[in-house]
Amino acid sequence: MRKNIFIAVNTFLFAVLIWLYINLNLTYYYVMAVPLEVESSKMQAISNELPSSLEVTVKGKGWDLLSLILKNNIIYTIDISGYKKDTKINLVQAVQGIFSEVVNLPSSISVQSVVPDNLDISFDNTITKSVKIKNNTEVSVKEGYILIGLPRIVPDSVKVTGATSIISKIKYLTTEHGNFTGVSNSFTKEVKLIDTLSNLVKVEPKYVTIFYRVELSAEKIFEGVDVTALNVPADKEVLIVPPKITLSLRGGVEQLAKVSIADFKVGIEYSQIDSDEQGFVVPGIELPGKNFSEFTIIKSEPQRFQYIIKKKEN
Q1: What kind and span of H or E run contains 10?
Q2: What is the mean pLDDT of the chain?
Q3: Whole-model pTM?
Q4: What is 2-121's CATH number?
Q5: ∠ CA 206-200-95, rounded to 5°
Q6: Among residues 270, 266, 276, 213, which one has the least CA distance to residue 237?
Q7: Can you tell me the distance from the alpha carbon of 200 to that of 197, in angstroms, rounded to the nearest whole number?
Q8: What's the CATH code, domain 218-311?
Q9: CATH assignment of 126-212?
Q10: pLDDT by residue (tens digit) across 272-307?
Q11: What CA–CA distance (Å, rounded) separates 43 from 38?
Q12: Is 184 helix (H, G, I), strand (E, B) or coil?
């Protein structure tokens, strides 16, 4: 029984090898995407959009095409530093040459077509400017923890260099998307910038570092915070009813420990009182000297205040 299985397996493998040998000696067409990279001098800037890759159709025997498929580092790099004005490059001839030099293909393989078949290159004046970075990463913390404030990006802006017509339209660059879950500690992450115009624009640096602060979450109640009328005319006096407020604040344990009642500035502008038609106003709440984005007011009592306006006696 085992002998029969052994014979059957070997017969099958032999048949597969014969099939491969016969079929790989036939001629085939193969379409591949070849990444395009452009090298230029510091004084050159391309103003028209170029493809990020070329669609190349080649023809050859199966064995030779197999060796081509197994090579995953084929890149077509075009050096335009020698061009001084707008030009057109025939890509069919250029790609055939790069295959012969880099890939060292046998003569049986030939380039049948390239899409696009020509590369139009237009030049413009070169400028450099700084643009801000937009963070595209997300963080979710473990239960019982809190993200403190906004993440810090270093550097918060980068230099972009290219054609005036292109650089003038760039308002900011974004980082690659990242999603970090179950976080319970502060951390830093180096993130690459998204560069969709790599053949047209030079970006320096290409990576930024993002700093996230994470702490244990806590809540703290501050009772008896004074509520003040602000910018009251010299001949007027305003009494706030009631004169104090109770605030419940959520934030990181370390950050809440640094906050006291004296740090709060709770006020109502006189202009707000003067234009009021309902008989009550809502105060503004600030934490001067603190980063208010690090905290969340989860409750304030009372939420609305009445007032009494009196004219000062001489």
Answers
A1: helix 2-24
A2: 83
A3: 0.62
A4: 2.170.120.30
A5: 110
A6: 270
A7: 5
A8: 2.170.120.30
A9: 2.170.120.40
A10: 998 988 889 999 998 876 677 788 889 999 999 999
A11: 14
A12: coil
